[in-house]
Amino acid sequence: MVISDTSQFPYLRDPDVRLMMRAKEGDESAFEELVANYQNRLIGIFHHMLRDREAAEDLAQDVFLRVYRAREGYQPTAKFSTWLFRIANNLASNTRRSKGRRKEVPFAVRESGPLGVRPEEQLAVEKSALMPTRQLNKSEMRSVVRDALETLGERQKMALLLHKFEDMSYADIGDAMELSTAAVK
Amino acid sequence: MNELNNDPPLDTEQVCDLVAYLDGELDEEQTEAVEQLLTESSAARQEVDTLTQTWDMLELLPTEKASEDFTERTLATVRVDRSDSAITQQPWFRQTRKGSVLAGWVAGLTFASIVGFLTTSRWMADDSQPLLDDLPVIQNLDAYTDIDSIEFLEELRSSGLLEEETDDDSL
What we know:
The complex is a heterodimer.
Chain A: H1 15-24, H2 28-50, H3 53-69, H4 80-99, H5 119-130, H6 138-150, H7 154-165, H8 170-177, H9 181-184
Chain B: H1 2-6, H2 12-22, H3 28-40, H4 42-57, H5 70-89, H6 91-123, H7 128-133, H8 135-139, H9 141-146, H10 150-159, H11 161-170
């Protein structure tokens, strides 16, 4: 079946969806283009999640392999990035479960808000401990940000990274992570 | 700071709304409500400043780039996977696999049957064996029942009478 009606499939306006449709038809160069478009973004997300460069590349490769395997049954029912990051999120969750990594930080409601000790508070505490004697240099700040990121649960971290670096809306993040928009918020 | 202390602390919902406001995720009505809160509450304004600074600090996280051969390796992996799956999709492969599975089941069942037979015939008690062993007694049970004692039988055997009668019977 050739799908070309954008009124019935509005996501066909997404250029990456069109690339995926070409890949579905057997166009290898289209798939290669998708890999080129998303490899840095996926590796970036996975690296921030896992703090392990090699594991991040392995997972990203696995995501592309799954995309390729799924190409024949692909339907343009969402933006390509949403679909891709849904696969990425599932893969990250499976990896997390299999490795028995860190547990989810509960959404405890306290003065700090819905996320418990929030990264900005973590940052503020660490920052105040060093000031005013000197300003943090860039690498120290980066380390502080990374540590603050580590205080988040895996799902919170994924949602934050998707929003910050992929500029995804709450609805798209919810779609990718199979959460309600309210939960993403 | 005095101004901050006089403001009631923000509740969870308000903080969530501030985050969503900065993310541009509120509808018109909610946006107006948050903007109203911001005009009234210095705590809310302070919160927004903190959130904005924090959000900006995420820019400090390094931008990752794939290794130079990542694309090539990924495409090579995909090609290998495709050729593997192409073989497994061939009719002959599927038929061979089905045949192998069937042959495996037949071999397994046959082996299980042989093992079961050998096990039961060698180690399990045979109920008919004691009957076979006692067959001569059973055949002459009536005669043995009529005789009261072993001693009498011993006498018959020693007198040779029993052999003669047996010989007669055989004639």
